[in-house]
Amino acid sequence: MFILTTAPGFTDLARAELRQAQPDAFFFPDIAPGVLCADGDFFALADKWRQNPPIFTRHICPALTTVSLTQTASDLTNLQTAVAGLRDLIEPEFPFSVQTRIFADGPLRPFDVNNALADFIKTETGAPLDVRRPFQILSVVITQDTAYLGVSLTLHNLSDWAGGVRRFAREKGQISRAEFKLLEALEIFGIDLPPRGTALDLGAAPGGWTRVLRQSEQYVTAVDPANLHPSLQADKQVRHKPMTAEIYLLNDPDPFDLIVNDMRLDARDSARLMVEYAPFLYPQGQAIMTFKLPKNNRTAVLDHSFNILRQAYRIANARQLFHNRSEITIHLTK
Ligand SMILES: C[S@@+](CC[C@H](N)C(=O)[O-])C[C@H]1O[C@@H](n2cnc3c(N)ncnc32)[C@H](O)[C@@H]1O
User: Fold this and answer.
1) Reading across the β-sheet that carries 26-32, which strands appear in turn?
2) Looking at the predicted structure, is the pLDDT value of residue 6 above 90?
3) Which residue of 95, 149, 201, 205 has the fewest C-beta atoms within 10 A of its own C-beta?
């Protein structure tokens, strides 16, 4: 048994991804909106998805054992007993972490469960606790009457974060929430920006992505008919082109190390524009873009948009990240 997490409005697409990867898997009733429980071979699935990650399934973890809960103080002791049964799965020489998610009203709090079970594992196995860079994870998912527990390697879970929930702290000077989207994409897709690289930001206003790129010392050409935030207007390393991406194409663009595109456009039109911009990306360059998803025919629109992109790019990764709403984020190389 295992638990899959997706954005609540996208469970149908996550189910389809699992059915495609494991046609024999079947679903139990959902644990919570966007939290699905299924039966199948977790480790075979995890290996398959590690090579070829799904788009809409954000996180998976095994449920190797369950504990009946009463939502009283004795639950913690019963959880420890269950963990004792899993101790042989924990490699003593490698760092571990406990990730607890709670979908119930009761006395248990994630922090308390994490601490109690981590102390127990340290004492029982001698494995070091490292919540930032764990090699292995005990995942605990708690509902009103049942806890699901399982141990897996971090790389099996599709995300290092519990449920794929990657939060960033709000910063002074932040321009838009969209900044989190780019920060998450850079981290999850493992993209290193070149020192003092040149970046093209299509659909830049009000300028959150441009600000993130400036923090990595990129010189940014920001294309958007709308105004940029005043803090960027004063920045000499930001060149604002107050026009559409279609018009900027006719203005002899420079070559860039990075093209980012968060334009509010139909995904197919956005993909076509990216193909037209491909000649202005250096051969080793990379691109990050979002596809805004329609309410209907999402799969057909996505497939069509990916096919357009393939005319000029390799699709290195496509994921619905925690900070994506009705959209996905795509990493492209040439
Ligand atoms: C979601 S906002 C971008 C937010 C931005 N990434 C940030 O971090 O602040 C979408 C932007 O796309 C711009 N846009 C839509 N169509 C465009 C086009 N054809 N060319 C350039 N910009 C476009 C809109 O003006 C809008 O500012």
Assistant:
1) 26-32, 35-39, 2-5, 59-62
2) yes
3) 95
